[in-house]
Amino acid sequence: MDPQLAEAQPTSPPQQPPKPRVKKAPEIPIFERRNWLIHLHYVRKEHDACKALIKEQMEETGGMCEYPTYVQALILRQEGRIQESLECFQMCALINANNPDNLKQLARSLFLLGRHKAAIDVYTEAAKMSERDWEVSHNQGVCYIYLKEYMKAKECLKQAIQYNKHDLSYVMLAKIYLMEGDVNMAIDVYKRAVEFSPENPELLTTLGLLYLQIGQNQRAFEHLGNALTYDPSNVKAILAAGSMMQQHGDYDVALTKYRIAAASVPESAPLWNNIGMCFFGKKKYVAAISCLKRATYLAPFDWKIMHNLGLVHITMQQYASAFHFLSAAINLRPKMGALFMLLAVALTHLDDPDNAKQAYEQSVNLETKDPAVALNFCVFLYNQGERKAAVKQFNNFDQRMQKLGKDAINTIDQEIIDLANKMGPALQVGEKHVWKKEPKETSGTGSSKDTNTNRQGVPSIEQAVAAAPSPPDKEPRSSKKDRKAVPAE
């Protein structure tokens, strides 16, 4: 063949290498492929379907799958089976010892079982794996609170606040100061909490109650008002603000506030107690008794409600009923001098002077500051013809008045002062024992209305001279204040 012709012949194209086959996506290992579905059922709270998947997964892997075990422990804890959840979390920690979440949940279960020292040890191990973890430091502080190691608890909670400012850490830190009796430090903590979270109605309400506790009513009212601005149906703030209005005699405004709270918590004993005392201030005694009876039905062991019921019955001259409720209150609070004073008033009107005298003696011994107790005893002894003993109690009244000071005297019911000024000449102890209230610069409605509030349920002076007077309403007023200012822990 001619070589030129051979060269002219077309050559076949070069053969291309075969295309590589498309690889399949890597298959997820069998013990992890259903984790997403387990998580989906758990967050939807479809626990039955979630537990069925977990059971299948555990059977396939022989119980060595971390995430299904973790979710199963969470479900068990929500169902109240704490010990079983603890065992599951221990299994998770064995499978993956480097996961701090397993240790934190393990410590949480120990905490719920009351094993606080063991929980602290586990949290310490978790802190080594997860540095600057707010949750670990906070929970350690809570455990120390239950162990009553308050210094370590404060250190842990302050450390948690440094890591991450959180409302709950502030609340627990303030709780420690309150347990130690340091109200001012608790207020400082709540002020910092409000600066961080200014729209939290719970923080504002508690701060207002603390200001109310130390007598700073203006600041208390401001914070309670701010709390109601952000949450108009906040029951705790409504009770606190309403009780302040009660003290100043604004019963209609207080009842308007209580009407809002009644829609949210119709079975609140403090609420019905305050409503009853509003009606008492408005001299609607039947309505007051009805509300107080409902309150005592909801809280049968609350001595303050029994105290108020006894006071209302004394005002209505139903002394046997008053004796019944006051006796119940004394059984619940046997160290309360004002209760014995009210009981003595009821016994006096029931023509039982011997027991009334014993009740007055017990009242004077228990209540060492209230001058009304000594004055009532003085009037009782004077009516019984025991002049020397009456003079002794009148001198006791005089000493208590001098210890109070001028500012405190201005807060005492005017009827008590008038009665004391009449008893002095009657006992022939001289005219030096004369007490007067100093006039205030401004005729604010608070003082006059507050005086009217105190005088509810007190017989007139003529009745007091004829028989022992019922106590001035100083104690009932403080009872109302105490009832509303019980913030639940």
Short structural description:
This protein is mostly helical. It has helices at 3-8, 35-43, 47-61, 66-78, 82-95, 100-112, 116-129, 134-146, 150-163, 167-179, 183-196, 201-213, 217-230, 235-247, 251-264, 269-281, 285-298, 303-315, 319-332, 337-349, 353-366, 371-383, 387-404, 406-409, 414-427, 445-454, 461-466, 474-484.
- Quick one: how many beta strands? 0
Low-confidence stretches: 1-8, 440-489
What's the total helix number?
A: 28
- Percent helix: over 70%
**What is the radius of gyration?**
36 Å
Shape: elongated
Mean pLDDT: 81
Structural class: mainly alpha
Strand content: under 5%
* Major beta sheet summary: none
Distance between the termini: 111 Å
What is the helix/strand order? HHHHHHHHHHHHHHHHHHHHHHHHHHHH
Structural write-up:
The structure is a single chain. This protein has 489 residues and is mainly α. The chain is built from 28 helices and no strands. α12 (201-213) runs antiparallel to α13 (217-230). The protein is elongated and about 135 Å long. It starts with a helix and ends in a 5-residue tail after the last helix. The model is unreliable at 1-8 and 440-489 (pLDDT under 50).
Name a few traits of the molecule.
disordered C terminus, 28 helices, elongated, 489 residues, disordered N terminus, mainly alpha
